[in-house]
Design goal:
128 residues, single chain, Signal transduction histidine-protein kinase BarA, EC 2.7.13.3, Sig_transdc_resp-reg_receiver, alpha/beta, 41% helix, five-stranded parallel β-sheet, protein histidine kinase activity, Rossmann fold
Length: 128
C-alpha cells in the first residue's frame, strides 16, 4: 500500500513564484494548493488538511509573520510545519521571522535542490 502524497499549501502573492513552486512540488509528487493572501490561506486551512505550509513573508494585508502566529495559536493547526519564504533576509528580519513560529526559512530566489532537501528534513525530523 502506498502512502498518500503530502499536501502543501503555498501562500504566495507573486504568480510567477506560485507557478515555479507548484511546478517543483508537483514534479516531486506533492499535492499543491495556492493562496494569494494570508487571509485566503487561513480560510483554506479551515477546510482542508495540509501537511506543510510554504509561507511568503511579504504579503499584502496580513503578512506571513502574523499569519504564522495565528496558525500557531489555533489548536488544530499549530503543529503543521511552516517554511517561510522571503526575499528580504537581513539579519534583524531573519530573527523576527523565526520568532513568529516558523520551522524553517529560505530566501528567494529559491534553489530547487535546497527547497527539496528542506522539505525532506521537515517531513522526516531527526528523533530527539
Amino acid at each position: 500500500m502506498f502512502a498518500a502524497p503530502k499536501a502543501i499549501l503555498v501562500i504566495e502573492d507573486n504568480p510567477d513564484n506560485q507557478q515555479l513552486v507548484t511546478w517543483i512540488l508537483e514534479d516531486e509528487g506533492y499535492q499543491v494548493a495556492c493562496a494569494d493572501t494570508a487571509e485566503d490561506g487561513l480560510a483554506l486551512l479551515e477546510d482542508t488538511r495540509f501537511d506543510l505550509i510554504l509561507m511568503d513573508i511579504s504579503l499584502p494585508g496580513m503578512d506571513g509573520k502574523e499569519a504564522t502566529q495565528q496558525i500557531r495559536n489555533t489548536p488544530h493547526l499549530k503543529d503543521i510545519p511552516i517554511l517561510a519564504l522571503t526575499a528580504h533576509a537581513v539579519q534583524g528580519e531573519r530573527e523576527a521571522i523565526v520568532a513568529s513560529g516558523v520551522d524553517g526559512l529560505m530566501t528567494k530566489p529559491l534553489d530547487e535542490e535546497e527547497l527539496l532537501k528542506t522539505l525532506f528534513s521537515l517531513f522526516n525530523p531527526e528523533p530527539t
